[in-house]
Amino acid sequence: TIRYYERSGVVPRPARTASGRRDYAEADIRRLGFIRRCRDMGFPLTDARRLAALTADAHANCPDAQAVAEAHLGALRARMAELRAIEAELAALVENCARRACPCPVLEKLEEGPDRGP
């Protein structure tokens, strides 16, 4: 993952030792930790990169960081609503399976395909 972050420009390529091993500076390690925490909160890599760039002046850049976070929060809430709807539908299917309905409601729903419902 660290090498991917290097290739995508999220973190700079570190210096190398004489034997060719990566030699990360303390600032590199802090930035990797920052990116990791962004990813743990579900931020896409593009947003993590934008937020990391804003850390140079965290006070002045707070409105920009807030905008990125608010957009992510909106997307997260929308996804959670989708997941709640899926959960309710799946719970109903499982309940019908528990009653041993024939044909199997789970398989029947999955065979419908995407154009016949959520």
Q: What is the subunit arrangement here? A: single chain
Overall geometry:
elongated
Largest sheet: 2 strands, antiparallel
Distance between the termini: 34 Å
CATH topology of the domain at 2-83: Multidrug-efflux Transporter Regulator, Chain: A, Domain 2
Q: Please give the radius of gyration in angstroms.
A: 22 Å
What structural category do the secondary elements indicate? mainly alpha
Order of H and E elements: HEEHHHH
Structure characterization notes:
The protein is mainly alpha-helical. The chain contains five helices and two strands, in the order H-E-E-H-H-H-H. The longest helix has 37 residues. The two termini are 34 Å apart. The chain has a domain of 82 residues: Multidrug-efflux Transporter Regulator, Chain: A, Domain 2. The mean pLDDT is 89. Strands 1-2 form a two-stranded antiparallel ribbon. 64% of the residues lie in helices and 3% in strands. The protein is elongated.
List keywords for this structure.
118 residues; mainly alpha; Multidrug-efflux Transporter Regulator, Chain: A, Domain 2; two-stranded antiparallel sheet; 5 helices; 64% helix; elongated
